[in-house]
Amino acid sequence: MKTHTILFEIGLEEMPARFLTDTERQLKEKTATWLNDARLAYEKLETFITPRRFAVLIHKLEAKQPDLHEEVRGPKLQIAKDQEGQWSKAAIGFCKGQGKTVDDIVIKQVDGFDYIFVEKFIEGASASDILPSFKDVVLSLNFPKNMRWGTRQLRFIRPIKWIVALNDKSVIPMEIEGVVSANETRGHRFLGTTVAIEDALDYRAVLKQQYVIANTCERQQMIVDQIKALEEAQGFVVPVDVELLEEVTHLVEYPTAFYGEFSKEFLAVPEEALITSMKEHQRYFPVRKKDQSLLPYFIAVRNGDDANIDTVKRGNEKVLNARLKDAVFFYDEDQKQTIEANNDKLKRMVFQEKLGTLHDKVTRVQAIAQSIAAALGLNSEQVGQVRRAAEISKFDLVTQMVNEFTNLQGVMGEKYARLKGEDEAVCIALNEQYMPRHAQDDLPASIVGQIVSVSDKMDTIVGCIAVGLMPTGSQDPYALRRQSMGIVQILERFGWSMSFEDLLDLVISHYETTEIEVADYRIVKNHVKEFFLARVSFLAKDRSVERDVVDAVTFNGLGRLHQLFMKASLLEAKRKDEGFKETQEALVRVMNLAKKAEDKDVQASLFENESETALYQTLLEVRAPFKAKIDEELYAEALHDLSQLTPEISQFFDKTMVMVDDDKVKNNRLALLCQIKKLVDALGDFTLIEWKQQF
């Protein structure tokens, strides 16, 4: 069958760079779905996106849909024939509706009943008749922000300026809001012209001649290669930030990288401020020496060729130097303020309407942090560091530098606190309190930083949930999900000696002393537990631990999170252990019966057979080493000790009826099983684990 190359290009006014990655993803997925739903086979699908266009190139699209031979089921046979055995009106009407006659009827049985069927031949539609409906794909794209233009009713990311739609060399008729498809595209805004595309296969080559690199990966690689060439020529190092690289790639159609300079005097400002100014305001890449110290240079990417590049360079240098002068001014002015004066300004900054000011929040965090420090057994010096770090944790939020560069909160707090002579542990904690800032970020390394970080995050989470600000769907204005994940990671990584439940009780107890109006803190506590359980489950799933195993190890609470994840990983691994099935099944039998038992001492004098004695004796032998291994967090070895009970448990149930009429004997047997269950509970509730087909 003959195949075709199809091109669709939608030209627009410049789109925001931050939307391009998701737009291209949607374009690819929705085009593939459209083709599959239309039953049009193809070999390859390419997508392209620049600030001024998005496009699809479909290779080797078949000329028509495949023909279909379809069996259509009609009414039951008893309805399709009348009492005389003739075809009824229902049968005749069914056939007529399918373009058939009663002579075409066949009878088949479905689920024990006879039905009438007819076979239909559906000729495949021509691709040329279907392709204009690509308009529906375009209009189905979702954007965070849309706009209307002129008198148009369509809401779209930016005004549509042109449409290219080609089936090989022929124009596919299409129209969106008065813009009619043609074979003419537009090149680079300043270097290109309007140009005809004679054949869909020529798309990339035609655009390249017009100074447009349509393929995102190719455009990005050009930038990387150009930066490498500058590194080799100048002898410096450019750490390429992946997010900035992606943004710059989506800002240009034809990239040309160049380097510029700024005054060395600006290097007196903390490099984080310089780098933030370069990246966020100018989209420049900072430059370093090979020893990683910052150099007074930058790499910029021009949207165009290298003509008059020196003029462009001077213009960029002028703009950056003005920006950096502002940073120097902010830095100098901030140092004129005392930490206490800044802290006092927090009384006028609202954290959340129902939760008070930032000063109120700092007061709560300070109390929580001191209680955690005491619970963890820190020495007096560390407790003092925790108290001071929490007390001044937000002072930098009122500085001019953080007001200008919000992502420097904590970073500038550390810098300014050090300049004011604060304890080094306190300075470090001011930055670490915000860690992890994102999924790949480091965790706070110091115990002081960990405590302030957890205290701050727990205060936000408990407070927001207490006043009804639980995240819903994609709405999470206070980043509670990210902050709770940070707490989970900190508690797991550093193995704090307090359980999550103790931590939550501690935070709730401090909230109960405030004037914040909350109906019932018991309800708040349950909501917070459920919220954190969801985060634990998410993190566990990311490590290939299924939800039933998470439920098993959290049946009695989250406990100490590093222990939780160790147990979960062990039990998940045991799914693949063929020999563990017998142990798990034996312990589940014990646990199901033991749920009905009271925790009493076992009386050996009430045993009536050897299987009871043997099980009890093995339990006594196993119990002490098992508990020791649990205390030492040697969970695999503890589980091995439990498995030694398996033969005796099997013998016990083979030889012994537990629920006998004699209450003393029955309760004694239940007490024996209860003692075993108490050991198993230290690892998890095995009754919740679904031992599936792996066994």
What does this 3D model show about the protein?
The protein is an alpha+beta fold and 695 residues long. It has five domains: 145 residues, 2-Layer Sandwich (Alpha-Beta Plaits), CATH 3.30.70; 55 residues, no CATH class; 119 residues, no CATH class; 203 residues, Hypothetical protein af1432, CATH 1.10.3210; 111 residues, Isoleucyl-tRNA Synthetase, Domain 1. 49% of the residues lie in helices and 14% in strands. The protein is built from 27 helices and 17 strands. Strands 1, 2, 3, 7, 8, 9 and 10 form a seven-stranded mixed β-sheet that branches. The chain has a three-stranded antiparallel β-sheet with strand order 4-6-5. A three-stranded antiparallel β-sheet has the order 13-15-14. Helix 12 packs across helix 19, helix 17 runs antiparallel to helix 18 and helix 24 runs antiparallel to helix 26. The longest helix is centred in the middle third of the chain and has 26 residues. Tetramer of two alpha and two beta subunits. It comes from Halolactibacillus alkaliphilus. One of its GO terms (cellular component) is cytosol. It is found in: Cytoplasm.
